[in-house]
Amino acid sequence: MLKRVTTVILLLTLFSFNLLSVNAQEAESKGISMEKAKQIALGQVKGEILNAYLQDDDGKSKYEIIIQAKDGKYEVEIDKSTGKVLEVEREGNKGDRDDDDDDDERYDD
């Protein structure tokens, strides 16, 4: 009896691992992996990946990858199903601000 129970437990365990493996392969086949998305992002912006995550946006999955480059941080968005780069955006673009002090009025008393 113990031998039969052990065999059943072993078979159930193997079956469970097989289902997990099939589910992981199915999920992978529905698009590119996180590692592939990181490679694509680094092909767009040279630097160090700070953060990467999968986001669902209106029923479409996309990877958002934050990269620290020499000239600032960039966010690269990549479509999970196709691997297409959706957007490359520099964060906190300081060049867009007017930093001139010419407009400051100073009065000496």
UniProtKB/TrEMBL annotation:
Biased composition of type Basic and acidic residues is found at 87-97
Specify whether Signal is a keyword of the entry: yes
Domain PepSY as annotated: residue spans: 32-89
Region entry Disordered, spans: 87-109
Question: What's a Pfam family this protein contains?
Answer: PepSY
Swiss-Prot/TrEMBL keywords: Signal
User: Residues of the signal sequence?
Assistant: 1-24
Comp. bias regions, Acidic residues: 98-109
- The name this protein carries in UniProt is Peptidase domain-containing protein
